[in-house]
Amino acid sequence: MNEISCSNCQTKILSAYCPQCGQKYIQKRVSFYTIFTDFGGQIFSLEKSVFATVFNLIISPKKIIENYWNGYRNYDQSPGRLLFYFLTIAGLHLLFVDENIFQINVKTPSSLLSPQMAIIILVIPILSLTTFISFRNQKRNYGEHFIAHTYLFSVFGSIVIILDDLLTLISNELETYPLIILLLAILFWTSLLFSKKRSWHIYLLNFFIEVVVLLAILSCFVVLGYFTGGGIVIK
Fold first, then answer.
1. Which of 58, 68, 109, 178 is the most buried (most CB within 10 A)?
2. Is residue 208 part of a domain?
């Protein structure tokens, strides 16, 4: 067995937890089984401050997300717990501010499986497919892309909702495009995450590739929706 060192304090790990800082290490690669078990088991766990994790995801997404990919747990906030915080913020927004989220009406009388709700539910899977295709040469499985987008969607989704509500308080006449801003922010940060070379022209090139791939995927959904008679109402 190869000797494993903690990614935070470099202490030698002899069991599942670092004896110095308490970070958990899992040898298995990220899969949908580990995604579901971590999401369920870590939502209410006591981990590093959520604000510290959010700050580090913004300034250094590669460190936090690769840490999770490599099996380290219980030091930073888990993606499942950050997603729980996002859902809480979104719920408060729908309850007290507006029935639209990202300018999409999700309070339709028909059902929770309406096209309006579907676009919210499918954001993470679609973005995961986008980077899975855009960065296929990096040999990351779809589950690892899903983890990255769960982290980034939870953080930037919460930020966009809060900022949009603050702008609404200032003036109802301001035109904002929260969903577009959210998607572009996530794609740019995944460019920072997946780009092997640390160069701004590489970041921008990969960002452009991601946008093109996302537009192609969305075009397929539009065509599918047209032939099936579906539709999405954006206010």
1. 68
2. yes
Give the closest residue to 150 by CA, choosing from 69, 48, 225. 69
Determine, yes or no, domain membership for 68.
yes
64's CB contacts (< 8 A; 6+ apart) are 53, 56, 57, 76, 151
The whole-angstrom separation of Cα 209 and Cα 221 is 19
Is a pLDDT exceeding 50 seen at residue 233?
no
Q: How far is CA 67 from the centre of its chain?
A: 15
pLDDT of residue 226: 74
Residue 62 and residue 193: Cα distance in Å, rounded?
Answer: 5
Residues 217 and 73: their CA atoms lie apart, in Å, by 33
Burial group, residue 154, by CB count within 10 angstroms (0-12, 13-18, 19+):
buried
Distance of CA 86 to the CA centre of its chain: 10
Residue showing tokens 């579901």: 36
219 exposed, middle or buried (CB, 10 Å; 0-12, 13-18, 19+)? Answer: exposed
Q: 20 in a domain, yes or no?
A: no
Residue 119 pLDDT level (bands cut at 50, 70, 90): low
Give domain status of residue 13, yes or no.
no
Which amino acid appears at position 12 of this protein?
A: K
Beta carbons within 8 Å of 60's beta carbon, 6+ residues apart: none
pTM for the full predicted model = 0.75
Q: In this structure, what token pair is assigned to residue 149?
A: 């987008």
Q: Which CB contacts under 8 angstroms, 24+ apart, belong to 17-20?
A: 17/74
